[in-house]
Amino acid sequence: MTPQTSLSTRAWTELVLLGVIWGGSFLAIRTALDEIGPLTSVLHRTGWAMLVLWGVALLKRLTLPRDPKIWGAFLVMGVLNNVIPFSLMAWGQLYIPTGLTSIFNAATAIFGIVVAALVFADEKLTLRKALGVGLGFFGVCLAIGLDALRQFDTTSLAQMAIVAGTVSYALASAWARKMLGGVPPVIAAAGMLTGSTLCMIPLVLLVEGLPSLALAPSTLAAIGYYAIIATALAYLLYYRVLAMAGSGNLMLVTLLIPPIAITLGALVRNETLHPGEYLGFALLALGLSIIDGRLWKRRVTTV
């Protein structure tokens, strides 16, 4: 068995678990936003997750990097992978449903293909990938809707902010490959979260004021979920699945997240999505499957 072609039962189980965890994070973040500001929600996410991951690093007795360039790379990674996308998406969730946020988030893989093709010589944009990217872009545009382009308002701006967050994720992926390739995953994640936390502290104090822990139990539970489970523990699970299944199979988690987020948003917050938004996700999923390629190769082989 090779991890890029087939998945063991254990790999499938952990892949689905990762999708469920990340799918639930959108509802948790939106719940916390009922009481705290978007920037404060991000600081809670990066700060608590940072402490957990450094604790794991200490338990594993991992060696800290000594090169200042690595710590500089952590800071940039924290900005690209946490500060910018977390903040934009948290603000955007104030104005659009959690399920729609998760659909836009799935576009990360599409933008990642484009950024990788521009940055790395071994990531050329083949005809198949170009077709998948094109369908993915069209799906995102369809989910946004033509009305959002004709009547630009706060909702439209929120949608654009979340899409901009996915572009930042894609840039972060390229940066990680270029600058953090030899760093142990736990150290890389903890270092990144340290950089993002250091950036978020002054932003929160300047814009939203000193955070308080005198919060409703539901808010504290939401923060605990998206910071500890959906960030710190999810990073550890992510790297486990990556080792077992490979990066190609790991992209499948992108397709598992939106249905979970949409379902939870409907059940807990009575959110509804328009047919165009569902169709947009379907086209995005089709684009991702074309980029992945294995499903279509199997159909050709069968025929």
Supply the key terms.
303 residues, mainly alpha, 13 helices, disordered N terminus
Structure notes:
This protein is mainly α. The chain has one domain (9-302). Helices cover 80% and strands 0% of the residues. The protein contains 13 helices and no strands. It has helices spanning 9-32, 38-59, 68-92, 98-105, 108-119, 127-144, 146-150, 154-179, 185-207, 217-250, 253-269, 275-292, 294-302. Helix 1 (9-32) packs antiparallel against helix 10 and helix 3 packs antiparallel against helix 8. Residues 1-5 have low confidence and may be disordered.
How are the SSEs placed, and which strands pair?
Layout: H1 9-32, H2 38-59, H3 68-92, H4 98-105, H5 108-119, H6 127-144, H7 146-150, H8 154-179, H9 185-207, H10 217-250, H11 253-269, H12 275-292, H13 294-302
Mean pLDDT: 88
Distance between the termini: 24 Å
Helix content: over 70%
What summary fits the major beta sheet? none
Task: Write down the secondary-structure element order.
Answer: HHHHHHHHHHHHH
In the residues, how many domains can be counted?
1
- Number of distinct helices: 13
Report the β-strand fraction as a percent range. under 5%
Low-confidence stretches: 1-5
Overall structural class, as computed from helix and strand content, comes to: mainly alpha
User: Radius of gyration, rounded?
Assistant: 19 Å
Kindly state the number of beta strands.
0
What is the 3D form? globular
Summed up, what is this model?
The chain has 303 residues and is an all-alpha fold.
